[in-house]
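Good morning C.,

I know you're traveling, so I'll keep this short. The sequence:
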Amino acid sequence: MKLYFKYMMLFLKGQMQYRTSFLLLTLGQCLTPFTTFAGLYFMFDRFGMVKGWSFYEVALCFAVTNMAFSITECFGRGFDTFASLVVSGDFDRLLVRPRSTVVQVFGSKFEFARIGRLFLCGIVLVWSCLHISVDWSLLKILTLGLMIASGAVIFTGIFILAASISFWTVQGLEIANIFTDGGREMNQYPLNIYHTWARRIFTFIIPFGCVNYLPLNYILGRDGMDSPLYALLPLSGILFLIPCLLVWHIGVRHYRSTGS
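The tokens, ready to paste straight into the viewer:
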């Protein structure tokens, strides 16, 4: 991790050389989720409730999902752009270095301007928490933090899986966007508003429901989900990362150099 933080500081120093550009990009990233959130507000202003969920409850769901995605885009972008390393042959250089390829790819790209999106979603998170009737305990606060962290882990795992495809197809497949951008858009709302098959996919295959919907029910005290065991469900995001890393290492073993 020491090497990863060195990569991070180098990228940060490089991007801060053009501070005006960095600030404008950060502002732009701050406004991007604002338009989506505005659409959410106007929808609830028109309909009031969505399948028993109030505006502030869905706003909390929105904030958790987008904060997790923003963290992944900021610190795990290297895997999202990994296909370019395979096409150019630059991945060969990573293989001859005495460090893990996972750490090196993680450190190959950072987008600190995404902090703007993270900042806005953090405001929405605090605002929604202040407007919902929840008896906040230390365990519920910890659960909320685990939801954000585990959500970021799941998005990172999907990025790793999408990058692993490049070992066999050279170019990453756009189908991965169904689970990154599509997963983010879908997970902004409680999963019970979707069909059963969709809920099962995003609970048992890609466990977004375990790190967002089910723990959120525990925090809000909905549907009798008051057992502390629901507070531990976000840890399933870490379990999801294990097979993703396994697929990555299988892909590395099957990688064939471009010879350039």
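Safe travels,
E.
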